[in-house]
Amino acid sequence: MPTQIAKCRWFNSAQDKISEKQLPIESLKVLPVISNIIFDTLTTYINAKATITNSKEQF
Question: What's the pTM?
Fold first, then answer.
């Protein structure tokens, strides 16, 4: 059970109101920076709209 909760509010345009969600404080941790090479490779795979069955590239 998280010891602290973050309350997040945003405008929900679909319902034309302010929505709110409580999240564990751990969900706000800063994520490590992803290498541009890895990001570009993943973007290429996503844009190809194909199944990846075997990849020799190491991340």
Answer: 0.40
